[in-house]
Amino acid sequence: MIMTIMGNGDGIIRPFISENYWKYGTTHWIEWDMMKNGYRFLLSGPSGSGKTTLAQGILSKIARHVPESEIYVLDYKNIDFAYLEGAKRYFKHDSSTDGFLEFYDIFETRLSHNATYPWLILYIDEYPSWLLSLPSKEQKELMSKMARLLNLSRAKQIHICVSCQKPLADLFSSGSRESFSHKVLLQAPSKETVTMLMPNYKDVIETCPTGVGYMTVNDTTLTKVRVPFPQNVDAMHRDLRNAVNR
Ligand SMILES: Nc1ncnc2c1ncn2[C@@H]1O[C@H](COP(=O)(O)OP(=O)(O)O)[C@@H](O)[C@H]1O
Ligand SMILES: [Mg+2]
């Protein structure tokens, strides 16, 4: 059985374990210090591969371990986050654009000041569904804002996390897909997706079960990872809701 560690405000989260250790019976958690730098996560994989589950794990751990963190959840599909209904920074379906613009304004304000701020996190579930639902002029405007966010938010206490079945380059203007520091591919990625995100490793990446896949950090150090299914879903929802409504 895998035990999770209680929150203590130290900024350290453990989102998943190393599959290579797990295979040999050892639980080795991958650790990230969420108060060190802005992370840019791209979570990819086919429908049902575990992207939203992983995202909820990452976000609820940030909520618990990063004091005062404020999380925006944009849920265009309006399926998996019903428990956030009514929370201040939860934006579903067509209101996703309002949430994005509100977040973007805070980012621009931070950009023009030198100060220390609470950690701010933007999560966009199924990014293409939201973007492609909009007229093309608006898509272009939002994509250029997204590119600016990805390029310039790192030193402004901002983390960005995007989930996306197929992270086509066209969805990220000015080559900004390359700004993602942490790329995760879950389950059975198509050759096409592997070539998009992890071209250097296309010969070693294999089909995996739900919740298992690969991660690269700054396009190097390929690690095979396993997302343990959350033991206490209610507590996870409660932690995330706190930071969405803080
Ligand atoms: N890490 C995991 N371990 C076991 N089952 C998982 C895991 N992640 C997801 N699942 C199962 O797979 C289903 C789909 O997961 P979900 O996170 O919604 O995938 P996606 O967002 O990629 O469509 C979930 O309902 C859950 O039951
Ligand atoms: Mg999902």
What does this 3D model show about the protein?
Residues 1-5 have low confidence and may be disordered. Strands 2-1-10-9-8-3-7-6-4-5 form a ten-stranded mixed β-sheet. With 246 residues, it is α/β, with parallel strands linked by helices. The radius of gyration is 17 Å and the shape is globular. It has a single domain, classed as Rossmann fold (3-Layer(aba) Sandwich), CATH 3.40.50.300. Helices cover 31% and strands 23% of the residues. It binds adenosine-5'-diphosphate and magnesium ion. Residues 45, 47-53, 80, 210-211, 227, 229 line the site of adenosine-5'-diphosphate.
Give a brief outline of the structure.
With 246 residues, this protein is an alpha/beta fold. It has helices at 19-23, 51-65, 96-111, 127-131, 136-152, 191-197, 233-244; strands at 12-18, 29-33, 40-44, 70-75, 90-92, 120-125, 158-164, 182-186, 212-217, 220-226. The chain has a ten-stranded mixed sheet with strand order 2-1-10-9-8-3-7-6-4-5.
